[in-house]
Structures are given as C-alpha cells and as structure tokens.
Amino acid sequence: MAAAGGGGGGGGGGGAGAAPRGLRGWLRSAYRFATDRNDFRRNLLVNLGLFAAGVWVARNLTDIDLMAPQPVP
Question: What pTM does this model have?
C-alpha cells in the first residue's frame, strides 16, 4: 500500500537500483536506509540494531559503580 504512493519523500538522485559511488554515496544510501518510513523490514532491522547496541552498552557499563566511594589520594 505504501509503495503504491509514487512521489516518495526521499527526493534523492538515481533510481532504486543505482549503486552508490564513493563515501558520499554510501553515506546518502545509509541515511536513506535508516530514514525510509515506508519499508517495514528496514525499520525492523534498524530498530533491532539500535536495541542490540543499547543492550551492549548497558551490559558493558554495569561494571561502573558510580555510588562506590572514590579513593582519596
């Protein structure tokens, strides 16, 4: 249903099958991949990746005890 809308909101150059060139093209395609509101699978993949990154950060920061008394020099 969402793909039948035509026009789209990206407005980037090239078609859907155009290969990105260089770093600028790669960044543009990564940005469009992350911000495409019409693709459920892409949004699911991005959200799962962000969730996994948050879990990794939370698990690795649990070693820091901010309430522990600090050593006095």
Answer: 0.40
pLDDT in tens, 13-46: 545 555 557 888 888 888 887 777 777 887 888 8
Residues 12, 28, 7: CA angle, nearest 5 degrees? 25
Per 3-state DSSP, what percentage of the chain is helix, strand, and coil (rounded to 5)?
55, 0, 45
Alpha-carbon gap, residue 46 to 35, rounded angstroms = 9
- DSSP label of 70: P
Of 14, 16, 13, the closest CA to residue 3 belongs to 16
- Helix ranges (H only) for 11-62 are 22-35, 40-60
